[in-house]
Write a structure and sequence with these properties.
About 0% of the residues lie in helices and about 50% in strands. By secondary structure, the protein is mainly β. Among the domains are: about 135-220; about 250-375, no CATH class. Strand 33 and strand 34 (about 390-395) form a beta hairpin. The radius of gyration is 28 Å and the shape is elongated.
């Protein structure tokens, strides 16, 4: 006769990895593998999966154009039919990618390169800044006396203009009888036009457009259309990219650069920057500001970066790569509305940053669930499945990714107070199991 005693569990409350297992309350779990916990506390076996791509994949991002992910040196775009196309093949396999979607265009970076996906094609993230042109005098024209310099800009297929080049050499006119010749540099990939600007003082004015890198002749100096992008540069590579209120924000080490307002979100300047003490681990925008974390967590309150105030709102160390912005209605917390930011911390578990001017934080799992020290997130996503709202994430320790493997049989287990309370199996399905936290 078995001496085991049956225990009736009315509902399950999820994992508690903070309290001593011997002191857990009824329904609290030490471990829950391949199971879902419903809103009423009931358990069901997690559904299976189907393999659609084989490889050591990383940096997955869902967009309106399809699913983006990296594998070795390749960046792929996968459509709804699970057909994957290589977007570029020069990635560093050791560097994760970060993404942001802006009006159907996906911007990406990995701290070394930048780029964008537009209409299923890989393009530069805005046109590059050209080299300086060469300026010379021509024998005929009506250019007034003065000392002249020229700069050029590049245009991409979408008509976006780059920042201006360095100034050309100076050509001096002493009387009205000559013109100028501007020779732009060679056009880079993704460049479809060249803007030519001339100055005899401080401001530059457009004097020509060209669809090639050939010579542009200037016979008359028309000062009507002045240069608007003189001191702007291309986007800096970064490890986090986000879009907020018409601007793109790029975190590079301990700096957060912000672009000019749309449609010029490809224009950046060294002056448009926030500086923090440590490397930025998190950057998530909500309705009234942006949450940023290094050693501590800050809220950049406001909609215009020129007028934002920076307030310290938290001290628990953020787990990098474990954040997402979702609609508050999916959290089931009363009196909270609009977009909120969710992320993991090592001490307090899951944190929610509210969408208000104060940057108020909610600790949803404090005292019940914590993340082991030294883990790094590989992304977080919101998922609705079988009527359950889920935040799904995976972690890695140091440089070693959690390994994923597939089988044709799913086995699930629920462990409470270190005893297996229930186990079951389901055949003819495929699952992905992760060594570590699920």
């Amino acid at each position: 006769m078995s001496d085991q005693q049956a225990v009736h569990i009315a509902s399950f409350a999820g994992i508690n990895n903070v309290t001593d297992p011997a002191r857990l309350k009824p329904g609290e779990l030490v471990r829950a593998v391949n199971v879902d916990i419903h809103n009423d506390g009931m358990l069901s076996q997690r559904g299976g999966t189907t393999r659609v791509f084989s490889g050591r994949c990383r940096s997955v991002f869902g967009s309106s154009q399809g699913l983006l992910f990296a594998e070795e040196e390749n960046l792929y775009l996968m459509n709804a039919d699970h057909n994957a196309k290589v977007m570029r093949a020069d990635l560093d396999p050791s560097l994760p990618l970060t993404y942001a979607e802006v009006a159907g265009e996906v911007l990406y970076s990995n701290t070394v390169i930048t780029g964008s996906i537009r209409q299923g094609q890989s393009e530069p993230w805005g046109p590059p800044t050209p080299d300086a042109p060469m300026l010379s005098m021509t024998p005929s024209g009506r250019i007034p006396p003065g000392r002249y310099r020229a700069v050029v800009t590049f245009f991409d297929a979408a008509g976006r203009e780059s920042g201006a080049s360095e100034s050309s050499n100076v050509v001096e006119f002493k009387e009205v009888r000559n013109g100028l010749s501007v020779r732009p540099p060679a056009m880079s990939d993704g460049v479809y036009g060249v803007g030519v600007y001339l100055s005899s003082g401080t401001n530059f004015f457009r004097v020509g457009l060209s669809t090639s890198c050939g010579e542009v002749r200037v016979d008359v100096f028309n000062q009507a259309d002045h240069l608007k992008s003189q001191f702007f540069e291309t986007a800096p590579p970064g490890h986090i990219i986000r879009f907020y209120r018409g601007r793109v924000y790029v975190a590079t080490d301990n700096l957060v650069f912000y672009s000019e307002p749309a449609p010029n979100f490809h224009h950046f300047s060294d002056e448009n920057v926030f500086q923090f003490d440590g490397k930025v681990l998190l950057m998530e925008p909500v309705a009234d500001g942006i949450y940023v974390a290094d050693h501590d967590t800050f809220f950049l309150s406001g909609t215009d970066p020129e007028e934002m105030t920076i307030n310290k709102v938290g001290q628990a160390r953020v787990v990098p790569g474990s954040s997402v912005v979702i609609d508050a209605k999916h959290l089931g917390v009363e009196k909270i509305q609009g977009p909120v930011a969710a992320w993991f911390t090592e001490k307090d578990g899951l944190i929610v940053g509210l969408s208000n001017m104060n940057g108020d934080l909610l600790q949803l799992t404090s005292g019940r669930f914590a993340i082991p020290d030294g883990l790094e997130g590989m992304g977080m996503a919101f998922r609705q499945y079988r009527g359950i709202n889920q935040l799904v994430t995976a972690f890695r320790t140091g440089l070693e990714d959690q390994r994923m493997g597939a089988s044709d049989k799913v086995s699930s287990e629920v462990i409470m107070r270190s005893n297996v309370m229930d186990s079951f199996a389901c055949s003819d399905t495929v699952t992905i199991t992760v060594n570590g936290i699920v």
